[in-house]
Fold:
Amino acid sequence: MQFGAPLALSMGDPSGIGPEIALMAWLRRESGDRPFFLLGDPDHAGALAQRLALPVPLRACAPEECAQDFGAALPVVPLDARVHGAPGTPDPRDAAATLEAIERGVELVRAGRAHALVTNPISKDNLYKAGFRHPGHTEFLAELAQRHYGVETRSVMMLWSPELAVVPATIHVSLRQAISDLTSDLLVETGAIVARDLAARFGVKAPRLAFAGLNPHAGENGAMGREDIEIVAPAVARLRAQGVDARGPLPPDTMFHAAARARYDAAICMYHDQALIPIKTIAFDSAVNVTLGLPFIRTSPDHGTAYDIAGSGKADPASLIAALRLAARLASADQP
Structure:
């Protein structure tokens, strides 16, 4: 099977499970999978493969050599920064390599040397110790889009699986801050980005968006707060006036069962846990983090660094494999 450019896979936090699930994903490759290369430290990846007794040959190479090498070895595009930490023992010095892998991936996609970026999990706490100033991956990628593509955009996090897709309108902030940040303008902008990317990249001809209520029972007509009346409902009305099939606010406790999910393509949720609890319950191993609103494709496994099992061989690469395959699917749709 012929492919275009390969996928770029950042190593994530090298002390987490990212590098080892990258090795496992290569071992579980199938004939129809698009080739990918790991942005990381070849010595660190080789030592990890030896530690875990994983029969993964590695080959340091340029992105253009990835496809020809992929069947025989996992291609690794070396970083300038070296890895210091050990599995399960993060080192703040590794913030440089972690961030370099992400930015190099964006640069390579921008140059056409990779077709999409897949990112392994990072530790925001470890990055904060090194001066990282973004709330998370999603916000950092928006800055990189501006830096390398010259476009100012608002990135939107979507957790996608075949069973359910959810979007938290507010992400890595406290619940108190999320409620304070919630506005009709924010929801309209979020809904428009989701509808556009579902149509353009996922091939959904007329995306159906379901907006969760903020309060229990969507506020009970104002009896439990007026946010759903004054913020959510007007946003839905504005989106409908723009031609988007939006509905809500819906009672959050009844919109995630199977019959309800069949009536929409993505659920727009008001805060982080309202979105992530249902999808992690329904599709813990198969959900993929997709960043919408960017001028490039980015996916990621829907889990963290898992320091507690890093280096033990217990990590499950299923979500990373799903992220790689979804990135390949979106990349194929993105090709002229």
Notes: The chain has a mean pLDDT of 92. The chain has two domains: 1-153+291-336, 163-282.
